[in-house]
Amino acid sequence: MRIKRIKPAKGPEYKIQQVIIKYLEDRGWKVRVMAASMYIYGFPDLWAGHPKYGERWIEVKNPKSYKFTAAQLEFFPIMIACKCPVYILTAANDENYKRLFGKSNLWIYLGGYSYGK
């Protein structure tokens, strides 16, 4: 069995993630970090739920430099096909926050376009 490499927890994305978590919690969201392990991988970084807006799966990326793992490239499209959209956030600001209320923006970051949910 191949053991999956887990990214370091304190890099640039970690710092962005912490600010995004606070930003969302300040707006009434409950947020949980989805920690990867050798058995659970390919999930977005965050699950967020709001009593009014429902739940969101959020992948945090560093806008200056990002890539997707092989597991993410395999699993994110499956999530979207199952009506579980993945939202890419790169900062804690109003522009990024508005992304959570539209269609999944994953395909933009993969270099394509999505016409689905």
Protein topology:
Blueprint: H1 12-25, E1 30-33, E2 46-50, E3 54-60, H2 70-81, E4 86-89, H3 94-99, H4 106-109
Parallel strand pairs: 3-4
Antiparallel strand pairs: 1-2, 2-3
GO molecular function, one term: nucleic acid binding
InterPro entries: tRNA_endonuc-like_dom_sf
Organism: marine sediment metagenome
Q: Can you give a write-up of this model?
A:
- With 117 residues, the chain is α+β, with helices and mostly antiparallel strands.
- It has 4 helices and 4 strands; from the N terminus they run H-E-E-E-H-E-H-H.
- The protein has helices at residues 12-25, 70-81, 94-99, 106-109, and strands spanning 30-33, 46-50, 54-60, 86-89.
- A hairpin with a 3-residue loop joins strand 2 and strand 3 (54-60).
- The longest helix has 14 residues, at 12-25.
- Mean pLDDT is 89; it is low at 113-117.
- One of its GO terms (molecular function) is nucleic acid binding.
- InterPro entries: tRNA_endonuc-like_dom_sf.
- This is VRR-NUC domain-containing protein.
